[in-house]
């Protein structure tokens, strides 16, 4: 229905077959973005002090690293691979999630039920898992869904630049 390529390959079947690695990229990339962002954001927001300062300065540093040049350099060291490009995407794009999660944790930890849990002797891990993380699930789902789209776009960009397995029929390879 979409015609053929110059080599005689069916474009529709390649688009359908190329959806699988693209969806895997979106899911894994979005999961890594939310995972790293939530880990750093919750740790910085709840622990505060020196830990917060160090984690947020690290986040500021990561903001200064451009994704595409960093991906080209890093993949040249580890080799061109599908999982490697997903790892690079997740390694850089968590930074916005961490900032927002930190600000949410700062708001949540000043609420009355958190103060009463502290007064009752609840451990920090119990407070985080019982009270803070359930309040962040809606935001985590939002960032995950946004991260899926961002990961797919950046994977297609990297594949277009040739930083992906050329045999794998991903959408970025097809555009190239």
Helix percent band: over 70%
Rg over alpha carbons? 20 Å
Give the uncertain stretches in residue-range form.
none
Strand content of the residues, in percent? under 5%
Sheet/helix structural class: mainly alpha
Label the overall shape: elongated
Q: Tell me the number of helical segments per DSSP (H or I, 4 or more residues long).
A: 8
Question: What do the pLDDT scores average to?
Answer: 88
Oligomerization status of the protein chains: single chain
Question: First CA to last CA: what distance?
Answer: 21 Å
Write the H/E string, N to C: HHHHHHHH
Counting DSSP E segments of at least 2 residues, the number of strands comes to 0
* Biggest sheet architecture: none
What is this entry, summarized?
The protein is mainly α.
Description:
The protein has 8 helices and no strands. The chain is elongated, with a radius of gyration of 20 Å. With 176 residues, the chain is mostly helical. It has helices spanning 11-47, 49-63, 67-78, 82-92, 95-108, 112-119, 124-160, 171-175.
């Amino acid at each position: 229905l979409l015609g053929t390529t110059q080599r005689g390959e069916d474009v529709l079947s390649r688009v359908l077959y190329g959806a699988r690695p693209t969806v895997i990229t979106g899911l894994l990339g979005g999961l890594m973005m939310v995972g790293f962002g939530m880990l750093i954001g919750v740790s910085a927001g709840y622990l505060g002090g020196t830990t917060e300062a160090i984690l947020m300065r690290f986040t500021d540093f990561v903001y200064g690293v451009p994704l595409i040049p960093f991906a080209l350099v890093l993949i040249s060291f580890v080799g061109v691979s599908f999982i490697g490009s997903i790892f690079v995407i997740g390694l850089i794009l968590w930074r916005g999630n961490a900032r927002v999660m930190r600000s949410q944790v700062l708001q949540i930890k000043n609420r009355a039920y958190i103060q009463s849990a502290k007064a009752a002797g609840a451990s920090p891990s119990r407070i985080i898992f019982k009270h803070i993380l359930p309040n962040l699930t809606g935001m985590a789902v939002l960032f995950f869904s946004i991260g899926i789209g961002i990961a797919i776009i950046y994977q297609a960009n990297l594949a277009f630049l040739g930083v992906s397995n050329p045999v794998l029929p991903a959408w970025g390879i097809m555009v190239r």
